[in-house]
Amino acid sequence: MHIGLKGLLLGTTLLAGSAASAQDVTLTIESWRNDDLAIWQEKIIPAFEASHPGVKVAFAPSAPTEYNAVLNSKLDAGSAGDLITCRPFDASLELFNKGKIADLTSLTAMANFSDVAKAAWSTDDGTKTFCVPMASVIHGFIYNKAAFTEVGVEPPKTEAEFFAVLEKIKENGSYIPMAMGTNDQWEAATMGYQNIGPNYWKGEEGRLALLNGTQKLTDEGWVAPFRELAKWRDYLGDGFEAQTYPDSQNLFTLGRAAIYPAGSWEISPFRTQIADAFEMGAFPPPVPAEGDKCYISDHPDIALGLNAASKNADAAKQFLEWVGTAEFATIYGNALPGFFPLQKETVKIDDPLAQEFLSWRETCASTIRSTYQILSRGTPNLENETWNAAANVIRGTETAEAAAKRLQEGLETWFKPAGQ
């Protein structure tokens, strides 16, 4: 009788343990953002687990430069985590087309994102979405408030005002008007052409027109930003042709330049480097003329998908639905100021400079970098060619018209617009 009771108690204990283990699911996230490990462990994951008992989450990042190769190897070997951090556009689209990440179109959370926000993780026709958007980066101009006060200028709203500000700073002589170089080329395109361009080609209207063939890179809306970039030459300081991206950053953070054409990802490192030396402000790309509608490059940067082979798909979908909520957006956006949530619902960001960038969504239309979807899949690669063209135009070795003509001719050698 004693042995039977002991066996019964042991069996009951084993059954209870099995029930607990069946309930507790651990999800693993693959990511390249190893700098964010503490943020996930200390802020994001505890918030999710508090409202989702029985589901545990582990953040397991790889080195950024190795992520694509490591992830592909794990997916092929069947050892990848349940949740896959998605890079924008073609790299993730390829994973979806190969059946490595799942179709998430039917997730309830997808209703919380605009078509522009989902574009980086959707099929070319926009009918299927395979990653939940997490954050974008926004382009504009960061400026030294003390320098502006000293020179007696205000943040410009139009192109004419912009060049008047640059001219006044140049005449003052205490500061380089604007810190940007052409040595690395991508800087000229990303912080130059893609920053100011949307105001000329009217954001998504122009970008989609390129894709369907109703506009060409030789049209005025695409040539005009090159023409403006050529005028930047007089305000970048001596030796800008040999100036690298880190050089530009240093010129601004050390207080030697008044304006920095920026991506919002600069906010956190700039705060650390500048400390209390001066206060930063920001303004959106000035519009061509007073009264024009404004557009901003609000470029999707990071999302989260589901490993199609995950054995914990139901729990993983719970996490993905949560990633689409305002709770996640608020935690993520404040933990990483300058990486902005993509939900339709407005999120309050505590960092005042980051909030300034984010506030532009209320008055300006968002678009993505014009070269990133479809148009850089062939050779010559339009993204890389735009780097070279923007740098050449600023240096004065190629005219705006010649650069645009070269880009269009290169694109036409391999790209056929939709419906043509």
From TrEMBL:
Domain of life: Bacteria
InterPro entries from the UniProt entry: Bact_solute-bd_prot1 (IPR050490), SBP (IPR006059), SBP_1_CS (IPR006061)
Main location, first listed in the record: periplasm
GO cellular component, one term: periplasmic space
Signal peptide: 1-22
Name listed for the protein in its UniProt record: Probable sugar-binding periplasmic protein
Location of the protein in the cell: Periplasm
Summary of the function given for this chain in its UniProt record: Part of a binding-protein-dependent transport system for a sugar.
Pfam family, one: SBP_bac_1
Record organism: Amaricoccus macauensis
